[in-house]
Specification:
2 copies of one chain form a homodimer. Chain A is an alpha/beta fold. Chain A has 14 helices and 21 strands. Chain A has 3 domains: 134 residues, NAD(P)-binding Rossmann-like Domain (Rossmann fold), CATH 3.40.50; 160 residues, Dihydrodipicolinate Reductase, domain 2; 81 residues, ACT domain (Alpha-Beta Plaits, 2-Layer Sandwich), CATH 3.30.70.260.
Chain lengths: 436, 436
Amino acid sequence: MATKKKSALKKKNACATVKVALLGFGTVGSSVARVLAASKFPGLQLTHIFNRSVERKRTSDAAKAVPASVVWTENIDDILQSNVDIVVELMGGLNPVEGWLRRALASGKSVVTANKQLIAYRGAGLAKLAALHKVHLTYGAAVAGGVPVIPGMSQGLGGDQIARLSGILNGTCNYILNRMESGADYATVLADAQQLGYAEGDPSADVDGFDARAKLCILSRIALHAELDPDAVSTQSIATIEAIDFSYAKELNCTIRQVSRAQRDGSVVQARVAPMLIPLTSPMAWSHGTQNMVVASGRFGGDVVFSGHGAGGEPTAVAVVSDLLAVAQNCGSVALPVRRRSVSSEFVAPHYLRFVVDDKPGIVSSIAGALAKVGANIDSLLQRPGHPKHRLPFVITTEPSLTSTLEKAMTAIARMDCMLERPLCLQILTAEDKPE
Amino acid sequence: MATKKKSALKKKNACATVKVALLGFGTVGSSVARVLAASKFPGLQLTHIFNRSVERKRTSDAAKAVPASVVWTENIDDILQSNVDIVVELMGGLNPVEGWLRRALASGKSVVTANKQLIAYRGAGLAKLAALHKVHLTYGAAVAGGVPVIPGMSQGLGGDQIARLSGILNGTCNYILNRMESGADYATVLADAQQLGYAEGDPSADVDGFDARAKLCILSRIALHAELDPDAVSTQSIATIEAIDFSYAKELNCTIRQVSRAQRDGSVVQARVAPMLIPLTSPMAWSHGTQNMVVASGRFGGDVVFSGHGAGGEPTAVAVVSDLLAVAQNCGSVALPVRRRSVSSEFVAPHYLRFVVDDKPGIVSSIAGALAKVGANIDSLLQRPGHPKHRLPFVITTEPSLTSTLEKAMTAIARMDCMLERPLCLQILTAEDKPE
């Protein structure tokens, strides 16, 4: 509190131009150049661009937005040994980027980055280094692209005690699940998403939840003041969701979304990234296409919702350039003490259990028995007509239970002869948003 | 750009406690004291509370959250001549508050305020004074209470070019219109709102749009970089909306909300606060109860939505305390050049026209004739069954037209003998949110 931040930038005189280097001239990098060119912010000057095989970039169409004075280079030392004031890192990954950014910070350059993995895994150390050298480290673009969740929460909700975060943090999963809601099947939609450039050739980072997990850990640091080990946050893939699950979800007045959530429970943080049933009345059910959304639930301020375009070159460039302006104007972020917290994936929630069976008498009784054995109460049993007996999908919903408790029962149930697929177990979100 | 802000706060040493005075110990003031007491932010110390008839406040239940060391006073000089670092103004109105805050700023104290009228009318001058004396002036609580729209937009969207703002900025109107949507009539709901403390005895500031107008002008400064004269922004009351309008709106897949909107059109800003028909697919249709919502539409980032509790003691206190933390940590706000802009209330939009007539042959033809005379095209004509011929409400929707053009026709139509009430003319919001 009342920390007096004296930045290296600060020592320059008031009218000096702030020199900016871009590391990476892909989709986001070229969008940043375009946004800077379109708005001509006085005092911000793009001076260097680093990229591997830089000649290919320098002669590309995207380079037309870049001033002729810019130095293009594939030698990182041209940046790190230059007099640039701010290094903008848009390359991604931990290596070699972490080392480069450490060198930049240590030599008095501020850093603006969109690198969620780097900030989730190494953010605390980098922030310390930035503080030591009295420079800025900002990463508004690392979570939810163009949606100003990080500045909104750090500057605007610092006065609250945020008890819970829930969000849709991966646009690819949201696109896939939205399309499935309209009847398409997973494999088809994934292929479309790959063709549209929404999903990578290897979609695991998105669909298995690792991308969202990194973002959730960054938000936990800012909103819950809790430093989490990303690897300790459990994830569940959306790849096992089937079209039939959307039909059953609809009967329950729900839809299905990949939800990232974290909440304080004493000294532990409960955190998880998983597909969940979401009531249609929840703001999270309203997210369309590749939209992102974050709901921060505060002790004093109640639920605050942020939503918008979470990805894409230009929305992400908005976050990068907004950070650049803040750093250039030496506007620090509110810093509150952050503690390392251990992570639990235990949530008490009602659950949705979907089975696909070769129907025989006694199946429901056996499943009910397995659930009773772990103390889980059945809330409803749903079975839609029109499916063949030999491949019958049906659903059981439970009263609030620990996921780990149910998973014990599910392991036993999965071994039953009649089970044609591994049963699916999803948490159901209960109304976190209580409109008056 | 690259302005180097040197605050008076800055000169203090790093571990010094920042002293805070509250002006006003009503609902918000006492909530601020409670939030500060609950979170015990190190380095922030509440030292003074000013209120008229202060003894009544000092002995109230709300005062129990206030540390015993606090000086209670009804003499403003006790604050202005003290060594407090930050003055928090929660009294409202222009006089005498403006003079007091000018004295505070001039004597090197930063100011945090929730006073929307003051900031809308006098914000530019106060900001200049703050800059001159190298102190902070922040007003995150002046718009949308606990929803961090101001910090989110100024720190997180500075890199975009915001073309359009639309919002639900008055919780009282939103409460009234939500209740009317469920079938209640205006007078009953207004009386309830007054009893619940959501509406004042004289509800004009809320229902006639003056409260929302001040907030819209503040947001225009931050998002559109446009300084508007609040008195030049046209307003339309929600008091003429009737239950029947919600029925017709529903037939059009819409609901009705008080919408504040502003958009750049060259060197002019089109701005208006009025009840509007909102498509049910718009995020603004989702706002419940007293919720506030702001949609900022950027050239690069697309639509960004902020929503949450816009009023009430504790949500507003969150905004105040968040500003206090930012000021105490000397975190400035991104400042971009703001220009004074003239205001137009002209929007091209489809319109909803509702008439209540003593039905006779030829009425529709006369109305259609009056509309044709000004060049307005009819899009649809709606007449619900079940109303008596001698008091028949019906609706015409038009293709996109200028409101001023339609109002000319409406003035002529209002003079027709068969008109039992002044006809109602509402703009219809067209999809500003284009989900992929």
